Amino acid sequence: MRRFPLSFLACLVIYASYAQPAIMPHILPLKDRATTMDQVLEERFHRLLPKIMEEEGIDMWLVIAREYNEDPIIRTMLPSTWLSARRRTILAIYHEPGSDSVEGQAIARYNVGNIFASAWKPEEEPDQWKRLAAVIAEKNPEKIGINISETFNHADGLTSTEHQAFLNSLSKKFQNRVISAETLAVRWLETRTNTELAIYEQVCRIAHTIIAEGLSEKVIQPGVTTNEDVKWWYRERIAGLKLQAWFHPSVDIIRADPETDEASRSFAAQTTPNEGVIMPGDMIHIDFGITYLRLNTDMQQNAYVLKPGETAPPQGLVKALEKGNRLQDILTSHFEEGRTGNEALRLTRQQAIDEGLVPSIYSHPIGYHGHAAGPAVGMWDNQEGVPSGEHKIYNNTCYAIELNTRVKIPEWNNKEIRMMLEETAVFKDGKVHYIDGRQREMMLIPRQSLNMQ
Fold it and tell me: How many structural domains is the chain composed of?
């Protein structure tokens, strides 16, 4: 057998990573997706929910919504074939203190999947609110949680009209037992089961594969393709895979031109930096997210368009990415169960500044929503902490590790740029794990093969 030197084998690895297109992971057909989502919901309901209801001390949790005026929680509890509530849908979840199970009832005309059996027959009791009051009296819960919250919009889905009608249906005895289910609602939304975390790996791999396709010569012809073209290529690609984009992708051009000042642009601006044709020597930054199997991704990555004769990006950009990775490491090192998001923010900024970085931290929970329930770790326009940042960090929760650091690029006459990065990650067993990894090297357009070096 012919033996090759290690240097040659290393080149083969480089060639495989740059020259070969990534293989798109398997994406389930719609029927199989529905089956998977229903199985995950049943697992969460029977294994996760009893634990967090016990810990939060809520005996009955009510989720109340009307068709097309949806509570954000109810969408996470409906079976896959229900695309919205029907008429008024009331889900009553009862947990007997000390029990390891929960019981679900639907105060509605219909069964709501296999979990919530209908507990209302209008022919016997025409008033839906009276029937709910009777169910509450039968169970006699000490604490009744409803979805009202000043801090988390995800946990504030009970409308004013429904709230008032609900309270009017109760006796004074039970009115006094009604409390906000804010923390319970947030923990239901943010906590991932092991099954979901396994699924999340594939969801993120699909997202990474789509990003890499778009940031390549398959899509971008320097001197011809505009960043607007790339945005819409991503939308078409997502739709072609029967997936959803939960926000419109952004594609920014960062270039050496001293007349442009992308680093000072407010994120509130409606325009994209350097809108127009992508040229050799440009750095391309993308912000991209998909929804698949009810889980969301949120990722920001960067590519460099090679000039004729170049085989690598300027070292200044390479160093900028390294500094961005370092800021990620600092942030994730301060994730600790029981610590608040605001505490993690303060510790991260302090250490980053001490190390000579110029940080901006705006990481957020992710899961059933892109900007999800849980502890925010900064906002781009508030680096001192926010009310939702007072929520504690819990195990088995996911985050978009989103941030930037300002860096001067020597090859660009010391022009300052923001190295913006974002990756989907999970906090589990005391550590942060990037789901399907993170960007450690700048993508190149075009990809490099052996005969080009």
Answer: 2
